[in-house]
Amino acid sequence: MKRIDLALESSRDYRATILPPASLDDLKQCQKELSDSWYPRIPQRYFAFLRNKCNGFDGDFILYGTKPFHSNDSGLVPDIVAANVESGHMKHYLLIGCIFYRSCHENYFYNAKNGLFEVRNLLINNVEREYKTFNALFYGEWGRS
Could you give the C-alpha distances from 82 to 20, 65, 88, 131, in angstroms and in order? Predict the structure, then answer.
């Protein structure tokens, strides 16, 4: 996760909103709420990111955390449970973020069927990019912004 540490540090210079890490209790409650709504569990590496790095991120792209947060650029960003419930997508996908919250055309999903992180264009219902790991997603998308 050293590359993520460097990316987070660099993002601070560009007014990114980076929340403190989530508590274990918040993550357990979030997992329970996702499960109760029939959504996949938070994948292990994203769980570790929320627990050890930050519980929500907005720096040209958004990553949802366990609680809603106010962003410098996007206003109120929902938590991961609310984002999933509001999105109405298929249940084997876990929505974890998006590009530019107010006009989310590309969303970040964890596909529980194949274990990949996907960047999906919702306007044309197409997978634009796939990543094998959360770290690759974060650094790949951060590097694009």
Answer: 20, 10, 10, 24
For 69, the token pair is: 């947060």
CA 4 to chain centre: 14
Report the C-alpha gap between 68 and 78 in whole angstroms: 4
The span from the CA of 79 to the CA of 82, in Å, is: 5
pLDDT tens column, 3-61: 788 888 888 777 889 899 999 999 999 999 999 989 999 999 999 999 999 999 988 78
Level-2 CATH architecture, domain 2-144? 3-Layer(aba) Sandwich (3.40)
Domain layout of the chain by residue ranges? 2-144
Alpha helices in 13-145, H assignment, sequence order: 24-36, 44-52, 80-87, 134-144
Burial 19-57 (b: 16+ CB within 10 A, else e): bebbeeebbeebbebbeeeebbebbebbbbbbbebbbbb
Asked whether the whole model's pTM tops 0.85, one would answer: yes
